[in-house]
C-alpha cells in the first residue's frame, strides 16, 4: 500500500527521441496502447524526433527537453551511419561519454546496430548475423510470418500500430536482445539495447511470461 502511495506521489516524465519515423511511431503506439499502465505508474511519455536525423541534433533536443519539463530522455541512435565513418564514430563516442558523465540518470543512449529495425526483427528470431545496413534488416523482417507488409513510410505506420502488432512478442525481443553482446569496438556485431528503455520505464515485468 505504501509503495502504491509513493508511486502516486511521484510523477516522472520521460521523452524518447529517435532519428526517424519508425522510432516515433513505435513509441507513440506504446504510449497509446499502454496509457492506463503508464497512468497507474505516474509516467508521462513523450515520443519526439529532431528536425534533422543526426545524433548531434538528437542530443541538442534532449538537452532542451531536460531544461524544460522532462526528467529523463532516451536518445535512440542508429549505429550504421555512425559506424560508416571512423571520424564520425570517434566524435559520437566522445560526445556520448561527455553526456553520460554530465547527465547521469537523465540521458540514456539507446542504440541499435545497424538500425532500429533490428530491434523489430528480434521479436521474431534470435540472430547474430552481420547486417551491412537497415535495408538488409528490413528484407529479413519482411519474410513470411513476420512483418511481411512492412514499409518505412508514414502511410504504413499511420495504418498499422507497429507496437501493437509486436506487443505479444515483446518478452521474446527483450530476451533475444539481452543475449547479444554489445561490442562497440566491432561494428559488424548486431545489437539493440532498446530493452533498457523498458527497464527504466518499469514496463519490463509486465511482458515477461511467468516461469
Which features does this protein show?
single chain, 211 residues, alpha/beta, five-stranded mixed sheet, 12 helices, disordered N terminus
Q: Please write the string of helix (H) and strand (E) elements.
A: HEHHEHEHHEHHHHHEH
Largest sheet: 5 strands, mixed
Rg, rounded, reads 17 Å
Q: For the residues shown, what is the average pLDDT?
A: 89
**Percentage of residues in strands:** 5-15%
How would you write the strand order of the largest sheet? 2-1-3-4-5
Alpha-beta content class: alpha/beta
Which word captures the global form? globular
Give an overview in words.
With 211 residues, the chain is α/β, with parallel strands linked by helices. The chain contains twelve helices and five strands. A five-stranded mixed sheet has the order 2-1-3-4-5, with helices on both faces. The chain starts with a helix and ends in a 10-residue tail after the last helix.
SSE topology sketch:
Blueprint: H1 2-9, E1 12-17, H2 21-33, H3 35-40, E2 43-48, H4 55-68, E3 72-78, H5 79-83, H6 86-102, E4 107-113, H7 117-121, H8 134-141, H9 154-159, H10 162-166, H11 170-178, E5 191-192, H12 195-201
Parallel strand pairs: 1-2, 1-3, 3-4
Antiparallel strand pairs: 4-5
Amino acid at each position: 500500500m505504501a509503495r502504491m502511495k509513493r508511486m502516486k506521489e511521484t510523477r516522472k516524465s520521460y521523452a524518447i527521441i529517435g532519428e526517424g519515423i519508425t522510432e516515433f511511431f513505435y513509441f507513440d503506439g506504446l504510449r497509446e496502447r499502454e496509457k492506463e499502465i503508464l497512468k497507474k505508474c505516474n509516467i508521462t511519455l513523450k515520443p519526439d524526433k529532431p528536425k534533422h536525423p543526426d545524433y548531434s541534433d538528437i542530443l541538442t533536443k534532449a538537452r532542451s527537453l531536460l531544461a524544460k519539463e522532462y526528467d529523463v530522455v532516451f536518445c535512440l541512435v542508429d549505429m550504421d551511419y555512425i559506424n560508416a565513418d571512423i571520424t564520425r564514430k570517434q566524435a559520437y563516442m566522445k560526445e556520448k561519454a561527455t553526456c553520460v558523465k554530465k547527465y547521469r540518470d537523465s540521458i540514456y543512449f539507446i542504440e541499435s546496430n545497424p538500425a532500429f529495425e533490428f530491434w523489430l526483427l528480434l521479436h521474431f528470431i534470435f540472430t547474430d548475423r552481420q547486417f551491412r545496413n537497415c535495408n538488409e534488416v528490413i528484407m529479413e523482417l519482411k519474410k513470411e510470418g513476420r512483418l511481411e507488409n512492412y514499409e518505412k513510410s508514414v502511410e504504413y505506420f499511420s495504418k498499422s500500430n507497429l507496437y501493437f502488432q509486436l506487443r505479444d512478442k515483446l518478452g521474446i525481443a527483450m530476451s533475444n536482445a539481452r543475449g547479444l553482446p554489445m561490442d562497440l569496438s566491432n561494428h559488424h556485431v548486431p545489437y539493440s539495447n532498446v530493452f533498457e528503455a523498458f527497464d527504466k520505464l518499469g514496463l519490463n515485468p509486465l511482458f515477461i511470461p511467468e516461469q
